Amino acid sequence: MTRGISPFFLVLVAVTVAGAVLSAVGAGPVLIAGIVLLVLGGWAVSLCLHEFAHALVAYRSGDTAIRARGYLTLDIRRYTNVGLTFVVPVLFLLLGGIPLPGGAVLISHGAVRSRAAQSLVAAGGPMVNLVLGIALTVAVAVVPMPLGLAAGLSCLALIQVLAFVLNMLPVPGLDGFGVAEPYLPPRAQFFAEKVRPWAPLVLLVVLLGLPGASAVLFGIGDVLFALIGGDLRLAYAGYQELLFWR
Length: 246
Fold this sequence. Notes:
Order of helices and strands: HHHHHHHHHHH
Largest sheet: none
Number of helices: 11
Strand content: under 5%
Helix content: 55-70%
Shape: globular
Number of domains: 1
Mean pLDDT: 91
């Protein structure tokens, strides 16, 4: 089904692991560097997995051209826009703490077998973020580990939950709208196609510029994170180290 895992993806995994090690054994600047590497590397890995999930569900649902495009190798160079898919989300996370959705894989929606399958293709990416958030939360809860590593992993888990919440908003261009779109009337789909390139940008401006907007996002994420057993104190301790420059 694939031609093997891309070495570029393995480099991102290695960066994440190195950050985890530094978070576990370091103190002071070394601890900060470790958490930054752990969270940013882990976020980049999750972006790869998010897009891989979209591609895998599409492949299983009839879009066999996905394989030829290389999307099943987790190769960051294969995505439609590497800058939008990885560079911009990583920078926004480091600068503003918001897990901005990245670019997308190119799906041949006409080849996907049914409307239900098209909805599953859209939902595949955010569900990966939610599963990762749950898995990281469980790991922190059941595996004894140094406080620095627990804070970094909790921060990364909360980021995955926030990414799930943000991606599932019913905004054209985001996955939440993609889940509902196959069932909308043609006029609504036509309108969505026109605003799709700009709607996520408008959402970003709202989150960054409208007082209280990002607080609503984080409030919903906090509630969901707590429901899956996350420790908000640890998560925000990790956030504080991630955004050390503030």
